Amino acid sequence: MKEVTIYKNKKVLVLGLALSGVNAAKLLHSLGALVTVNDYKSFEENPEAQELLEDGIRVVTGGHPVELLDEDFEFVVKNPGIMYHNPIVVKAIEKKIPVITEVQLAYEVAESPIIGITGTNGKTTTTTMITELLNTDRRSGKAYAAGNIGTPASLVASQASSNDDIVMELSSFQLMGTTSFRPHIAVITNIFSAHLDYHGTREEYVAAKMRITENQTEEDYLIVNWDLPELREWSKKSKATIIPFSRKQKIEDGAYVKDGDIYFAETRIMNRQDILVPGDHNLENALAAICVAKLYGKTSSAIQKTFTGFAGVKHRTQYVRSYRERKFYNDSKATNTLATINALKGFDAPVILLAGGLDRGNDFDDLVPYMKYVKALIVFGETAAKVADAGRKADVKSIVTVQNVEAAVPVSYELSEKGDIILLSPACASWDQYRSFEVRGDAFIGAIEKTIQKLEEED
Questions:
Q1: Which of 70, 78, 175, 277 could form a disulfide with 211 if both were Cys (CB 3.0 to 4.6 A apart)?
Q2: Is 279 known as a binding-site position?
Q3: Name one GO biological process term (predicted).
Q4: What does the alpha-carbon distance between residue 85 and residue 384 come to, in Å, rounded to a whole number?
Q5: Domains in the chain, please, with CATH?
């Protein structure tokens, strides 16, 4: 960790806890700051605040009192989820107090090179791909995934050495609170409309994403999805060296697909079929990751080796296993129809789709045009009848209603043949039957193993 003195004996307010706030508070405390933590939850229901108090850090809980800012704080470190129209944030900005997020702190203390990944979709998968690529055949140090992926960036940055790399997933919320943040390599996977309740307009949302390259110089790299004209235009504002990727056209100095093979510049890397995670969106994620790997000097064989063993991020069109020439995929993270559409678009083989869950009042007609390969539909949960109705509109020949995911798996196998895909992609949240989409996905994986074990015993 770098020696940082700008916070020593300075009053700093950490606004909002969760993992990032806790680690920001601890890091600032270790840097000699006079830290006050403010969190909305009451002290009695706030184990994080209790822990920080035991560490000698002042805590104020049960709300966000604006009067706190009368105490002459010199910095505010804001939880990314707290909106900028929150009264205490508004007052801090009016008082010209710098309002930053935890990733800015991480950048200030990091000895390791930082690779930053942002975009509307694909951040987590791309971050994971890059981390695995950089760790393949690595001789010293380690690449660490951090940031929005779940591990606080400030925690990793305070522990990683100059021999390591930090692969940092970055949301627009986090990037809004950066000032000098400068990744050596920045990746923008794509840009679509999202989080307009937070940013107000699409232009503000895109501008927040583009802060990832704001402080880059010609010594740095910006990896951009060249299939999106908007990103091509926005990238002109960057001083970084642009490395494009495209699945639609040949790129002279980046990654692209040609005749079913993946290339970087003029070098063939591998066949696109070597990427186990299905879908054009995952192909784009892989192209972005390959650009990073090539900037790090990774060989084509090392890249191919990584991808042939990469089953995907858990619960995101995750390849689980094959059995008797059937392939099982866990896409429990698909909690809306758009996510399930993306999953279905990734397969050109017969699919047995497992779907259903929490009823939020919507129908599932959006799925109908994308169910041409669905040979059987197994539905469950509160939305079972609605999903089944979409299946009938799509002319799915076999539709079965079961109680839950565990019951769906053996039925899916009974309906399957060699070459089929068995896909859990619910198009619904899980909360009618499962605590989270992770629990639902784990139930699916467990049911696969149980079903296979029973089949083996019967042979």
A1: 175
A2: no
A3: peptidoglycan biosynthetic process
A4: 40
A5: 11-100 (3.40.50.720), 103-308 (3.40.1190.10), 318-453 (3.90.190.20)
